[in-house]
Amino acid sequence: MGVRVSPMVLLLAMVTLMACCPTLEADGSSSLFADNFDIMWSEDHFKTSEDGKVWYLSLDKETGCGFQTKQKFRFGWFSMKLKLVAGDSAGVVTAYYMCSDTGAGPKRDELDFEFLGNRTGEPYLIQTNVYKDGVGGREMRHMLWFDPTEDFHSYSILWNTHHIVFFVDRVAVRVYQNANADKPNDFFPSEKPMYIFSSIWNADDWATRGGLEKTDWKKAPFVSTYKEFSVDACQWEDPYPSCVSTTTQNWWDQYDSWHLSDSQKKDYAWILRNLVIYDYCKDAERYPTLPSECDLSPWE
Length: 300
Ligand SMILES: *[C@@H]1O[C@H](CO)[C@@H](O)[C@H](O)[C@H]1NC(C)=O
Description:
Blueprint: H1 7-17, H2 33-36, E1 37-41, E2 46-48, E3 54-59, E4 65-69, E5 73-83, E6 92-99, E7 110-116, E8 125-131, E9 140-142, E10 153-159, E11 163-168, E12 171-177, E13 195-202, E14 222-235, H3 262-274, E15 276-279
Antiparallel strand pairs: 1-4, 2-3, 3-14, 4-13, 5-10, 5-14, 6-7, 6-13, 7-8, 8-9, 9-15, 10-11, 11-12
The protein binds 2-acetamido-2-deoxy-beta-D-glucopyranose.
2-acetamido-2-deoxy-beta-D-glucopyranose binds at residues 116, 118, 122-123, 125, 207-209.
Protein name: Xyloglucan endotransglucosylase/hydrolase
Function: Catalyzes xyloglucan endohydrolysis (XEH) and/or endotransglycosylation (XET). Cleaves and religates xyloglucan polymers, an essential constituent of the primary cell wall, and thereby participates in cell wall construction of growing tissues.
Subcellular location: Secreted, Cell wall; Secreted, Extracellular space, Apoplast
């Protein structure tokens, strides 16, 4: 999307603001998988429960499986409950992410949650990453304060022009700040609408202990389970740039959503102290000059 906006487009955007941005709420009870999603690959590695509310993605030696939303969104709240592959899941990665492209486009924006499997009894890690115009390399890795294979937990993303926050069970685990919400920059995804994806695949060349632990295919199929997808966001409509962020409409665009609340800050401080095991902003070997977004404070 272009950055310069002509007065005519601005006017149009203002006129359409009233009618723009219907919120799509897709709670597990009212929505069928097929209303919101398409399978991207391996239809036969996807299953639902009888009532359609719980979804299973499986990986075996042949292939994994993935799905994506039919719609694109720009700004809002995106949430899903996941229960990850139990037992020996070394080398198995389950991903839940947002991306502006359906493939690995060279200019894509992307927000990732990746769940890195492990040997039985060893801790799962979550890895998050942010891509802007095809450039990622902004990994953080966290341990969790629970076993994510035992039960469903929610994994959510809040996205507005001020920040992107990754949540686990409503606890902020990563805050990715924007510098000046009105000015485009080279690190904060805000122009391109994104689809939501999930997939399971094999990555035993890097995922578990840096690739030392290989997938034990005798344990296949590896299954990740999903339910209660929910989106409270602006659904993108072509051809006009819809989903213009303003301070007067949706809750995710309002002042209270521009920063963490005091209690969220407390939790976030605890997470940073106790559960972060990798932060690219602290990796001076990899980034002798730290990327500029690393200077931004999440505490404002
Ligand atoms: C897997 O377990 C090992 C040993 O406890 C740990 O060092 C590692 O961080 C865990 N996770 C991954 C994804 O390697």
